[in-house]
Amino acid sequence: MKLVCFGDSITSRTEGYDRPLLTITLASKLGEEWEVINAGVPGNNTFDAIERIQSDVISHNPDLVTVLFGANDAAHHKRVQLLDYKRNLTDMGSPFIRTIKRAKK
């Protein structure tokens, strides 16, 4: 099984470890049957995420994806409008919704 953690610096932070703490924690909780891939990029907002979702998430053909964005969208110097934020999150989920619908047929 494969899990991709898609997000910003909150996803990618290492807290002094050699790899992201979120990855370490999830891998230890999920066990060896799970591969945990960290696709967190510091400073990214949902507009950046839309640009890289294919290469950083979909290309891995994950079984599960976490999406952790919002801090940089709300940051004063970037200030993504709420409607744009909602649309970007919906757009990020669209490829997975289509996949689920196809699988149910």
Key descriptive features of the protein:
105 residues, single chain, 3-stranded parallel sheet
Task: Write a concise synopsis of the structure shown.
This protein is of the alpha/beta class. It is about 50% helix and about 15% strand. It is globular and about 40 Å long.
Structural topology:
Blueprint: E1 2-7, H1 9-12, H2 21-30, E2 35-40, H3 46-56, E3 64-68, H4 71-74, H5 82-104
Parallel strand pairs: 1-2, 1-3
Helix pairs in contact: 3-5
Q: Care to describe what's here?
A:
- This protein has 105 residues and is an alpha/beta fold.
- Helix content is 50%, strand content 16%.
- The protein has five helices and three strands; from the N terminus they run βααβαβαα.
- Strands 2-1-3 form a three-stranded parallel β-sheet, sandwiched between helices.
- The chain is globular and about 40 Å long.
